[in-house]
Design a protein that fits this description.
It is a single chain. The chain folds into four domains: about 25-180, Jelly Rolls, CATH 2.60.120.260; about 195-290, Immunoglobulin-like; about 315-600, TIM Barrel, CATH 3.20.20; about 615-685, Immunoglobulins (Immunoglobulin-like). Helix 2 runs parallel beside helix 3 and helix 7 packs parallel to helix 8 (about 590-600). Helix content is about 15%, strand content about 35%. The N and C termini lie far apart (about 85 Å). The chain is of the alpha+beta class and about 675 residues long. This is Beta-galactosidase. Keywords: Glycosidase, Hydrolase. It holds the Pfam family Glyco_hydro_2.
Length: about 675
């Protein structure tokens, strides 16, 4: 009897699975909120309208249609309109539920249709958005169609920029199921929960928990908020009743004695705040958010302070762009970039030139990386147009993006700075009055953080618009000499007394496949970008920058090479090659190891110019980057001698004799009894 019953249950289960295979991917719903990935089996095709008999490609999100095309160095890459289609089943158990589609990013404008009915449009490719589809669905199979366009337009950021605007649903999508009463998913794509750090010190902390609610009836409800420590142990709990006349948000206060502070890389400690919406004592919705308690400030003469102690902020700008993938990155791609930042020894990062993936902010929280995060309000780069026009629709879009940036990332302790623009010019419509409006808006949205900008104009431009300043400078690449960066920093510091300044970009192109024996200055717009010049650029810049603590941030341009369709320089068209790592992340250039030796305390030794294999000069120098006190050089098995590191954690052996043919170069050292070594082969012609 039981045997027959089990057969029937198994058959019914298999039939259900078969029926569900054509309309993925959902199969159940619990009593609370569910967030269900919706990334597989999308049908993709190019069209300005919906077409029946057209060839479609099955794709998995994240996806972009430009990833391979831009590798050809095509300046007029396909900025067009395309369609994504999928299906899902609404199950009987979903009766009484509310349904939302949540997009982490669709570039640049997306209009969503459910069962051929328009349910919403979002303008902007780098911020999340949620659309309620409760009234658009029906029991059984439902269709979702998304029309996405990355075509150029004057009412959506970015208007220009020295990076590619990859078209597509380039970040994950999910379906959210909630009860009729829920914590709102519709507040500018945010979590609906805001952790406002009203007061934080080593002795105490006060946090206001503001929860946005979406209530469809007046049934008695309550909100329970729980603070958990890093081991998931309950620290405190408070419950508030929601009255029938309660508005759509509720504020609660948490007070804490002797808090464990989030202290950057040294101790990135995270609490968790869990907010639960209850009805008749049962949890009907829940949101959990990270809480990193910290306080920070910037002094115009002394730099950045975290929890009352000076912290030298240095790191690199980062683009979400990988060779062959464009901006359609997986969590594994983001994890790899974080590992590169950690190996580098960075304490900070500038997330350029747009809000980055949700996953990457979480990684920065967990690893203690201090962030500058910004909106895609950027100047023309190598284009001849403008990054701003005085237009009501564009200005509305920019304000929307700023609100989305702030609200979606409000609870990340890693974020300390909101960036308002990058390299805007003054030769078209004057953006300054509008930037002042943006600064006011940023302060209204989040008075706890500091605003900043990145300028490539003179030292007296844009200095009264934001709390802090940043300048993009390229001495020794786009004109000038390496050591002029120190003079520039001192003169700028003196020119704007009382203003906290940073260097928001500095860098030079470099190919690991192009080399010189001795330094030869390349043309920035030429094809020959030797690795040696890039390394020398960074050596001299860091020598100057490290001596100036008043620079509150020092940001290399850039972590990894990235796509820029307008560029026709370096090894390949369509690539900005200023990265410390190649576009595919496979080669760490010499400059990467220079910074690793200076920023990362983990013992290491690295022979520079190792890829400059074929040599024409018998007398050469050998340069080694190491943070160990001294090291010993061997050439073809012959001991050359020992050198101590200098102030830049570099050792140089001059006038080293090479022999015809292969020369085995070996460097050895010891640290706490452990041997470290590096080797390469140079061939004297």
């Amino acid at each position: 009897m039981h045997y027959k019953k089990n057969i029937i249950v198994t058959i019914l289960f298999l039939l259900f699975q078969l029926a569900d295979s054509t309309a993925k991917p959902f199969n159940h719903a619990s009593s609370g909120r569910e967030t269900i990935p919706f990334n597989k089996d999308w049908q993709f095709y190019f069209a300005y309208n919906f077409e029946k008999d057209i060839k479609k490609e099955t794709v998995t999100l994240p996806h972009t249609w430009n990833a391979m095309e831009v590798l050809k160095g095509v300046p007029d890459y396909n900025r067009a309109s395309a369609i994504y289609e999928n299906k899902f089943n609404v199950l009987p158990g979903w009766t009484g539920k509310r349904l939302f589609l949540y997009f982490e990013g669709a570039n640049s404008v997306a209009t969503v249709f459910v069962n051929n009915k328009s349910v919403g449009t979002h303008k902007g490719g780098y911020t999340a958005f949620a659309i309620e589809i409760t009234d658009a669905v029906k029991p059984g199979e439902n269709s979702v169609t998304v029309q996405v366009s990355n075509a150029y337009r004057l009412d959506v950021l970015p208007l220009h920029g020295d990076f590619n605007i990859y078209g597509g649903i380039h970040r994950p999508v999910s379906l959210i199921l909630t009860a009729k009463n829920c914590i709102s998913p519709l507040d500018y794509g945010s979590s609906g929960v805001y952790l406002k750090q009203k007061q934080v010190s080593k002795a105490s902390a006060e946090i206001e928990v503001l929860t946005k609610l979406s209530l469809s009836d007046d049934e008695a409800l309550s909100l329970k908020t729980t603070l958990l420590d890093g081991n998931k142990k309950v620290v405190s709990t408070l419950t508030s009743n929601i009255g029938k006349d309660q508005n759509q948000e509720l504020s609660q206060s948490i007070k804490l004695s002797n808090p464990h502070l989030w202290n950057g890389k040294a101790d990135p400690y995270l609490y968790e705040v869990r907010v639960e919406l209850l009805q008749n004592g049962q949890v009907i919705d829940q949101r959990s958010q990270p809480l990193g308690l910290r306080y920070f400030s910037v002094d115009p003469d002394k730099g950045f302070f975290l929890n009352g102690k000076y912290l030298d902020l240095y790191g690199a700008g980062r683009h979400e762009d990988v060779s062959g993938k464009g901006s359609a990155l997986t969590d594994e791609d983001h994890d790899r970039d974080m590992e590169l930042m950690k190996e580098l020894g960075a304490t900070a990062a500038r997330l350029t030139h747009y809000p980055h993936s949700k996953h990457f902010y979480e990684l920065c929280d967990k690893n203690g990386i201090v962030l500058w995060s910004e909106i895609p309000f950027v100047g023309p780069g190598g284009y001849t147009g403008t990054g701003y026009v005085k237009d009501a629709e564009l200005e509305s879009n920019i304000k929307q993006m700023l609100k989305e940036l702030i609200r979606q990332n409000y609870n990340h302790p890693s974020v300390c700075f909101w960036g308002l623009f990058n390299e805007l010019k003054l030769n078209w419509d004057d953006p300054q009055p509008f930037i002042k409006e943006l600064n006011t808006l940023a302060k209204q949205e989040d008075p706890s953080r500091l605003t900043t900008l990145a300028s490539n104009l003179g030292k007296n431009s844009y200095t009264d618009l934001t709390d802090l300043m940043g300048w993009n400078q390229y001495f020794g690449w786009y004109g000038g000499k390496f050591d002029e960066v120190g003079v520039w920093a001192d003169e700028t510091h003196a020119a704007v007394p009382g203003k906290s300044i940073s260097i928001s970009e500095y860098g030079a192109g470099g190919s690991p496949f192009k080399h010189t024996e001795g330094l030869i200055r390349p043309e920035a717009k030429g094809n020959f970008h030797p690795e040696e010049w890039q390394t020398a650029f960074h050596e001299k810049h860091w020598e100057e920058l490290k001596k100036r603590p008043f620079l509150w941030g020092k940001f290399i341009w850039v972590l990894a090479d990235f796509g820029s369709a307008i560029r026709t320089e370096g090894d390949a068209n369509g690539i900005n090659d200023k990265g410390l790592v190649t576009y595919d992340r496979k080669i760490k250039k010499d400059a990467f190891y220079f910074y690793k030796a200076n920023w990362n305390p983990e013992p290491m030794v690295y022979i520079a110019e190792r890829r400059n294999t074929n040599r024409s000069k018998a007398l050469t120098s050998v340069k080694v980057f190491s943070n160990v006190a001294n090291a010993e050089l061997w050439v073809k098995g012959k001991r050359i001698g020992k050198k101590a590191k200098n102030g830049l954690n570099t050792m140089i052996w001059e006038n080293v004799q090479l022999s015809k043919g292969n020369n085995d170069i070996l460097v050895k050292t010891k640290y706490k009894g452990k041997e470290l070594s590096d080797s390469c082969v140079w061939i004297l012609q």
